[in-house]
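Input sequence (147 aa), recorded before submission:
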Amino acid sequence: MKDMRPNAMMLALAVLCCAAVASAADAQQNSPLGGLGGIGGVVGGTLNPAPAVKSATFHKSAETATLDCAGGKAEVKGSSNELTITGKCGSLDISGSANEVKIEFGPGAQINVSGSANDVEWTSTDGRAPKVNDQGSANSVTPQQKS
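Predicted structure, token format:
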């Protein structure tokens, strides 16, 4: 008669595997972070990736453009641009020079400027000024004047 111990070990491994999948599915359903530490999860044997963070990135010079950051980050790397950025942005990073930027912020926004002679005019959905970190020179960050 054949020794059944290897089959018992395989059965135990299969049970542990099923328990792990069930635990991950439960975490996905009950966690505000989306299960598995907020990086996605497993439901019904299918991997669910974490949602992508939206952003608007502009890496050109001497252009006029309108961008939508969709509630995410806006990034400007260029010079002498005239940009209008919509979408209740969470942050703006500028590392260029002589850019004119009009931007709409969501609540709790932040501006990081490391370039020079940039002019940023902002509006915000909550009426509060964004936090400004200006590591550049001769930059201007002001509320947008109502027309």
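Checked by second reader. The longest helix spans residues 5-30.
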